[in-house]
Amino acid sequence: MYQMNYQHNQMYDPQAFQKSLQLMAEAVQGEKEDQLFYDYLISVAPNNEQKEIITSIRNDEIRHNKLYKQMYKQLTGQEVALEKEEKFVPPATYLEGLKKALFGELKAMEKYRVIRAGLPNRYYRDIVFEILTDELKHATLYNFMYTENYVDKKSSLSDNQNKTPDEWINHTSYLVEEGLEDFKRGINTKHILQEFILMGVLVGKGYSPEFAYKTVEDWERTGQSVLLQQSKQMRE
């Protein structure tokens, strides 16, 4: 179904047009994996401000996906053929997730510039230009969040170097209480030790005790750590 007025085409290049269609189809692949990635980032974001930022980015990306699907169908008369989804593997840390998201936005911008250049109608080029400006905004926001969390982590590391033993005990009291609760729930000792030693390592790297706890729990919940899942099923 073609809805374009071709008399306004500028330097129409059939090969560039086909390339645009190919990249549009690629742009809408991996919907489910993308959704799980955004859900992960939102779940581990350290504050409401960053949760809201990532939620707004996710909503923009859902809209972009719909726009590309609509344009593809209007330009070809066919639906985009979606490929089989790959299994989602969560990033090792929130910071690594932000880094992955930032570079993903930059890569998308390069692809979308090619898409825009090959479109034979200003109407569609304007839509892609709007998407490109959103991607630029997203990259800026991810860079802001990455920098903020990286600086906080470095600052926390600096503070931790000056802690006395008693200050460390007070600082990690949250983990002690959670460990005791796990013991009361009957979780086997090996699993508790594995989890809380890992959490202690993360705290030493600059994580807050609360974020360290959530990170390790996420490793177990998502299957990123097979050994944690296995040890939780063991009997004493």
In a few lines, what is going on in this structure?
By secondary structure, the chain is mostly helical.
Give an overview of the whole structure.
It is a single chain. The chain is mostly helical and 236 residues long. The protein contains ten helices and no strands. The radius of gyration is 23 Å and the shape is elongated. Residues 1-9 have low confidence and may be disordered.
Any chance you could write out the topology, listing elements then pairs?
Blueprint: H1 14-27, H2 31-44, H3 48-76, H4 94-118, H5 122-161, H6 165-171, H7 173-184, H8 189-204, H9 209-222, H10 226-233
Q: How would you describe this structure in keywords?
A:
236 residues; 2 domains; 10 helices; Ferritin; 0% strand; mainly alpha
Q: Give helix % range.
A: over 70%
Task: Name the poorly predicted regions.
Answer: 1-9
Q: Could you say which structural class the secondary elements and strand pairing correspond to? A: mainly alpha
Instruction: Supply the CATH class of the largest domain.
Output: Mainly Alpha
Q: What spatial form do the alpha-carbon principal axes imply? A: elongated
The fraction of residues assigned to DSSP E strands is under 5%
- CATH fold assignment of the largest domain: Ferritin
What string, H for helix and E for strand, traces the elements in order?
Answer: HHHHHHHHHH
Tally the structural domains. Answer: 2
Q: CATH homologous superfamily of the largest domain, by name?
A: Ferritin, core subunit, four-helix bundle
Give the name of the CATH architecture of the largest domain. Up-down Bundle
Counted beta strands: 0
Radius of gyration: 23 Å
Main β sheet profile: none
Give the distance, in angstroms, between the N- and C-terminal Cα atoms.
Answer: 66 Å
- Tally of helical runs: 10
Mean pLDDT: 84
